[in-house]
């Protein structure tokens, strides 16, 4: 309804920058980022001094993964209207995504001062403070939790942060909304970051271990497929390759590769039971580290395999506890406990390999690769 009204305005007044901006907002809200980018650019071109248009342009660029341009547009908006809490929050989140959490703290603090009853700036501030090791992260998360009527998904994220800080017990999984939002923002630069800056090689190592375990070809599920980086080494093994992920923007990037026969946007614990016996191989590269208790996932993976089918996955290696939430907001697992859970879920070990999964802040991340067969 609103979009029809804005289009009617444009027919009468083709130069109306406000209608262009509002159409861009509507396109962004329904997930049409390409159209939103075009409309927000046109609105700014018509009125480059509008802080509203610049802020919307910045938010749209951020959703498109064009983070440096987003920061530039948001700073331009704030130079004109410095007390815009949403632009301040968006700038802080963009700076965090660019790896500059220290620079994000000041705009996020200003956002919380201007909008103390809005939870998102508090949660973003807690993330930034935790990332740089400054005091106050737990207090910021608690301020979010104290806001009346807090959305349950935001409450889960605040509690997850507190757990990572050691201030609460770790939940049995990362909040789905947190994982989805994280990878939606990360999608456009995921491959470049992982393969370049982080030295990521888990998919290739996992596929090689699967081949050595004797898998030749069959129906393959790439669980937590992301942008499809993990699907590339699986494709030669697949008579049919399907991908599953929580993040719609990751799936959009995966679709561009043209290697999948089907892609599904869903939570793995909800979706796997719908495909009982549907696959010869289920592979999960760097996916299970967003789950603490792996028993439900391993049972669901086993159920999705035909008898004799293979499960292949990586974990970040932990010790002294079945699982623990690490500083990077990912879970580490005790390999012996994982093997015990797999056996209980109907999977027998074929191969296990310890390796460095990638680097984090210049330090190798110790991991373990598993290949198991459904009994």
Automatic annotation (TrEMBL):
Pfam family, one: TPR_11
SUPFAM superfamilies: S-adenosyl-L-methionine-dependent methyltransferases (SSF53335), TPR-like (SSF48452)
Stored InterPro entries: Methyltransf_25, SAM-dependent_MTases_sf, TPR-like_helical_dom_sf, TPR_rpt
Domain of life: Bacteria
TPR repeat copies, ranges: 51-84, 85-118
Keyword Kinase on entry: no
Keywords: TPR repeat
Annotated SMART domains: TPR
Domain Methyltransferase: 220-309
MF-aspect GO terms: methyltransferase activity
Name under which the protein is recorded: Tetratricopeptide repeat protein
